[in-house]
Amino acid sequence: MAKTNDIPRFGLLSGYRVVMVGLSVAAPFASELYAEHGADVIWVENPINPDMGRFSQHGASTQQDRRNMRSLAMNYLKGEGRSAFLKLIETADVLIEASVGGRFASKGLGDEKLWEVNPRLVIAHISGFGQTGIESYVKRASYDPIAQAFGCAMRMNGIEGQPSIPAMPFPGDYSAAFYAFGMTLAALLKRQETGRGESIDVAQFETMMRIQSQYPIKGWTYGEEYVKEGTHSLICALYGTYVCNDCEEVYVLFLGPGVLKAGLPLLGLEYASELFPEGEGIIPYGSHAGDVAEEAFANFLAQHTAEEVETILNEAGVPCSRLMNYEQAAADPHYQARGVIETWPAVDGMHEISGVKVVPDLANYPGRVWRGAPCTGQDNDDILTELGFSSDAIAEMYECNLLGKKSYKESFAN
To answer: Does residue 414 surpass a pLDDT of 70?
Structure first.
């Protein structure tokens, strides 16, 4: 268990309180970014049916994306649970919730009601289709792949002539989370000026649209449809995924005049020649020059391992990376030098979790991991006591199934 005073002071966001209501990825990750940088994040979860992330694949998503949080496993819609939730909102700076559009308003917890309780509250609603628009769309259920599909992104992924596939892992969820985190921070800055909160409507399909670079303009302004590139750029030669003589893969971009000047001689090709004129930054894919370059590169790859290709090309200034797996990453000296893999104690005090450190690195107010992901309802009593509930009132909430609590084993069953 952890009281407010047990939370160490560190990072850029110490002193802020965030309340999070949401399953899966988007709302928890947006809130996790607060927690990793010092904020008190209270995760309100269902006391009867906990987050599915606790029980799938070793509960790894919860262990990575709920660390530093406190768990209040409480039915926040009924009876004393609702009263406790509103008291909690009085103390909060930010509420981040993810649900079907309009759900909070339909439960009598719309923005205006929350602002009656706390006019300084910053609210982020994350949903697949937004809080406004065509009602039948707003009410649609959604997960990350649905946002990718409706947001015109999934059709970009895969091999031409083959069924489209979702990009992994979960760009719809994580893009929505980053928008929710960034915009709630912006709203907190504005609140310093106005004293008023804000409500932010994050629609996952729109965040997927917004990270598609030039392609929406090409489609809507010039009528150009996206053609799946698969493993190789359809614009540039020597731009894509390649297999080396050890059957390991590398990704390579021979792009830009300087890169071509440095890289082509490694393939036995002459830069500033008739075939590869000086000053040109790309070799068009499918052209005679492109075919010559691809054949020369195939011969080069046949003579080298992926690690050798990566070393040779990077030393020459050609962008290249092996397609790393987790074992290779753990052994890589740059991963080690930057401390990318961090190990922290689980809240049961008996297990250790190895995952990704707090990123990015900060010079003056770094984030940190002070606590593993909480057990279901681990902090119920501490949080409610601080909100003014007596031990008898809390006990009654347990008896009425408004509160739930589970052990570590029950919370992270494999």
So the answer is: no
